Amino acid sequence: MAVAALTLMGCTSSGYPADPERTLDEVSGSTLRVGIVHHPPHVDATGPAPSGTEVELIEGFADRIDADVEWTVAGEEAVMTAIEEGDLHLGAGGFTTDTPWSTHAAITRSYVERAAPDGTVTEFVLAAPMGENQFLTTLEAYLDESSPEPQ
Amino acid sequence: MKKDLNFGRTELPPELQQTVRRAIRLEWFTIGYLVVTVSLIAAVMGNSQAMRAAWVEDMLALIPPIAFLVAVAIIKKPPTRRRPYGQHRAVGVGHLISAAALLVMGSLLILESAIGLVKGEHPPIGTFHLFGHTLWQGWFMIVVMLLLIPVPVILGRMKIKLAGALHDKVLYADADMLKADWRTSLGTAVGVAGVGFGLWWFDAAAAIFVGLSVVKDGVSNMSVAVTDLTDSRARTIEGNAPHPLIMAVENYARGLEWVQDAGARVRDQGHVFHTELFIVPKDGASLTLGQLQELRAGIVEMDWKLADVVVAPVATLPAEVHIGT
Fold this sequence. Notes:
The structure holds two protein chains of two kinds.
Chain A: H1 2-10, H2 23-27, E1 31-36, H3 53-64, E2 68-73, H4 76-84, E3 90-92, E4 106-107, E5 112-115, E6 121-124, E7 127-128, H5 133-146
Parallel strand pairs in A: 1-2, 1-3
Antiparallel strand pairs in A: 4-7, 5-6
Chain B: H1 14-44, H2 49-60, H3 63-74, H4 89-118, E1 127-130, E2 133-136, H5 137-147, H6 150-166, H7 169-196, H8 201-229, H9 244-254, E3 259-270, E4 272-281, H10 289-302, E5 308-313
Parallel strand pairs in B: 4-5
Antiparallel strand pairs in B: 1-2, 3-4
Helix pairs in contact in B: 1-2, 1-3, 1-6, 2-4, 2-7, 2-8, 3-4, 3-7, 4-8, 5-7, 6-7, 7-8
Protein name (chain B): Divalent metal cation (Fe/Co/Zn/Cd) transporter
InterPro entries (chain B): Cation_efflux_TM, Cation_efflux_TMD_sf, CDF_Transporter
Keywords (chain B): Membrane, Transmembrane, Transmembrane helix, Transport
């Protein structure tokens, strides 16, 4: 019973929480516009097609919502500004929980954490449009499922 | 046998000492409760402006109980040469500080939220991952805010009774705020629920609503604190009428056969009053020290708040004293 209630509350296809700008509706079955910053191994933008762990992660998400990905390679500021202005739906490039761009884009929960040899832990995130909470919730649910280690 | 708990030189009746002890316990409980709520809200608040406002409000709610506990500790000390009126003003100072904090923080909350509203900032509210489920964080915010509704109302009702008995305005202000706290909790929950429906501006609107309630508390407390600290006539705990003891003191003095007229200047020191009673003796009445002492003792016995009484015989009453009906 409790689990059923929780599952219901976690259900995002119901449209609650909703997107004020209808981002999830817009990209589902259509085009997901993603801005990427070259930052191997997360994003490698040097080849003819982008690759890297975050690129694969986003392609999986696009599959989930039945969308084609349109990649835009740019600098971090350009990507974040474009997300803020609604020109891009998603940003990736080895961003971390310490990103200074959290006033321009909605930063996801970290989908993975990596410990450096000196013991400092870095948590990696993606950037989504501000306040598009159905999109953000769907994305984070996907990230939780495809996370290599449980958070 | 418990140690006597007094307000400076004013000896409290035993049942009132019980009331003070109960108030101290309640204030400690309030502090504990607020520490829990502040942590709970912090754990779920995320990027919601309304939740942040509720969090700030609960942080501020810590000030009045702390002010009360500090004041009770300070005013125990009897008057000294250096502080001939006793330490009672500690209550007023605590009250003023609480009021200023409420006013400043409430204004900041409103300003921040209004700027967010004008700039069209959409609050991102993501998810928590719990027990293998990914749940919208907004649900946790709503549940926490709804859980926080009942306790403050009960605490407020308990405190308001004690505040009346002790004539303690800090406690009264504290109780008054707690009694109204459910509105801001409910407002915050509604704000977050609105965001869930895609109405992004609900969050900032709820934060402004919370900010307004904080400012309103600040303004009313500031006015009461300043009024008392600037030696206005003593008023009832609600602050809306002259204190009936003023009239009672004057009537008592007028009732004596050797008194033609009497008028009192009574100010609220915080809990206790400082009374200056002017009396005009009847023509030909011989005024003895014994009579004056009797009059003073009679007034002190009327109420525990009337320990500090000065009686001054005069030819005519000063214009500024309350001269009856």
